[in-house]
Amino acid sequence: MLRSSFLNDLNQLKVDLNKMCYLVIKQLENGIDAFKNDDKELAKTVILKDKEVNDMERKIEAACLNLILRQQPIARDLRDISTALKIVTDLERIGDQIADICETIIRLNAKHAFKMVEDIPEMAEIATKMVRDAIQSFNDNDIILAKEVKLRDDRVDELFNNVKLELVEITKNAPDQIDACIEFTIIAKYLERIGDHAVNICEWTEFQETGEMDHTRLI
Amino acid sequence: MENKIVAKNLNLWYGEKQALKNIDLDIKEKSITAFIGPSGCGKSTFLKTLNRMNDYVDNIRIEGDVILDGENIYADGVDTTILRKKVGMVFQQPNPFPMTIYDNVAYGPRIHGIKDRKTLDKIVEESLKDAALYDEVKDRLHTNALGLSGGQQQRLCIARCLAVEPEVILLDEPTSALDPISTLKIEELLMELKAKYTIAIVTHNMQQASRIADYTAFFLIGEMIEYGKTDDLFSRPQDERTENYITGRFG
Ligand SMILES: Nc1ncnc2c1ncn2[C@@H]1O[C@H](COP(=O)(O)OP(=O)(O)OP(=O)(O)O)[C@@H](O)[C@H]1O
Ligand SMILES: [Mg+2]
User: What pTM did the predictor assign?
Assistant: First the structure.
């Protein structure tokens, strides 16, 4: 086998990306648990650990750019490296959003906040599962799963709209709750964005396998 | 795009050894087609079948057809001098003749009977211009061509090839002995020339093929494994052997 040092580097890239994937899933699960259980300590841990996610993004980006510069990858290698370069951005954004949710929870300082708005628990559940499955589709090169995960995004959008309507109702009846309602809107928006990033990961998974995204040829 | 050359079921043996196996390949007019593949896979052999440069090799046997503009170049009675005027060739090592720059370029036209000084002057100037060499040598046309740099010598060989007004230009690793700047100059030149000529090039440089070729064919041990648009071949090769070769995982 030729180019063993290139293959080693590519392998290391995959190992790091895998680590980052699981770190982000862990962050997401912890963030949602912190939300569910009013656990401010856990929320703080998630916020602190976000730096690790950011550092991994930089490290992987640098490794990708270095491989492009030195090896001029083509074919599958090029798709692997460009996919890695794109997916780290989505992973990093998911990390940011869950850290932001944690900050909101700390600010909110409410008991049982998680269940206050009817559709937020379901949103959180679907968005988390979407991220987990998007990452699985990426790791297994499973386009069928990727396509299926993308479809779930409609439900997240629908729930987001429900949440907005619910919050409008609450503010009408309890104007003193307006601050909390704004925080809940922000949380719901973050969850909706997390779903979008899961969709992006699925699209890059499809690209990695086919060179196409949404039936458009990229390379 | 029209087919300029069509190879049909082409087989070639050097003695007992088969060097080309059932090659079917169309070369499109006014485009650049690259041949890639590991050393000894038959790229040069195939290129040479396109203007019958192999004719004089001992013990060679060729079966199949090579159709140029609808005519089989291996048919009885084909005049190979006319064929090679139409299908010119540039080799890996620049090989200017040991004579002046002017005489190098005028060599072909003279062989084809052009004697008029003014006509020759014009052909020499235009060929050198087309080969992007004229500005560098216009003040020393009557000095020895061997005094040129390697990159200039290779462009001189291209000018020499253009001087007989070919329709097809075959190039066998024309930049492998050149530095990156001379290489880029030749690549730029080929990109310009393809407006007027059909170009086929053998290269070991994957980046070169992907930079300049419209179509690329991958050869392996005498067979043509995959052939298609260059973008397709380098981004989504269909055959695993192609993928392994172009990504360097061969062997
Ligand atoms: N004149 C010849 N007599 C006998 N065998 C030959 C002759 N020319 C080439 N061969 C053999 O035919 C095969 C193809 O050779 P060819 O020169 O076409 O390869 P190639 O793909 O151009 O390789 P490279 O990339 O090294 O130039 C090789 O095994 C070579 O040894
Ligand atoms: Mg050769």
Answer: 0.86
